[in-house]
From TrEMBL:
One Pfam family of this chain: Methyltransf_30
Name listed for the protein in its UniProt record: tRNA (5-methylaminomethyl-2-thiouridine)(34)-methyltransferase MnmD
PANTHER family reported for this sequence: MNMC-LIKE METHYLTRANSFERASE DOMAIN-CONTAINING PROTEIN, SLL0983 PROTEIN
InterPro entries recorded: MnmC-like_methylTransf, SAM-dependent_MTases_sf, tRNA_MNMC2
Origin species: Chryseobacterium luquanense
MnmC-like methyltransferase domain segment(s): 124-223
Amino acid sequence: MEREIKTTNDGSKTLFISELNENYHSHHGALQEAEHVFIKNGLILINDCEINILELGFGTGLNVLVTINEYLKTDKNHVINYFTLEKYPIKESEIENLAYFELFDNSELKNIYQKIHQSDWEKSVEITKGFNLHKIQCDFFDLKNIDLPKINLVYYDCFGARVQPDLWEKPLFEMVSDKMNVNGLLTTYSSKGSVRRILEELNFKVEKKQGPPGKREMINAIKF
């Protein structure tokens, strides 16, 4: 499927698939959405000294970059192991044109952005001291066959249910739950009632949170 680059309302860019009429990120603001959903309502709520993150899916790499940006603000006395799944990696020209490092004041992020995208798939790579990235090229439904440490934070960032409804149904959420630690947190931009009910069936405590710009609500879910 062909992709084109579009600029969202906060000045950050996203990829758009015309065949699906679907953006990789919110047109209201790609950066604002990533920081609100996955940092404000995700990463900063986790206090473990070793944080294992699972992301579905890698896409443009923006969620990895905002996570590293937040990590670099801390005293870095903890370790982050970041596992991310992606079936269709984007092209080098798209990576260059998205240029997400330009959105941040930290000059380190240009090299980090390049390292994120240049790092080999199927290997754990230390992107910066204490932050390890493991990119896995696969279908999300292959998750059940992937050996991971117990995950304590999930970035559930699949394409919307309008274009990929199977990614928002019980079988995939069950696979994700099986990979998670007790008290692990799943955060997603979705606030669908069907998603809330599925997570509750899987023994998650579900909380509706204020959504990112352009969206009234989102979901946080803690596994019990």
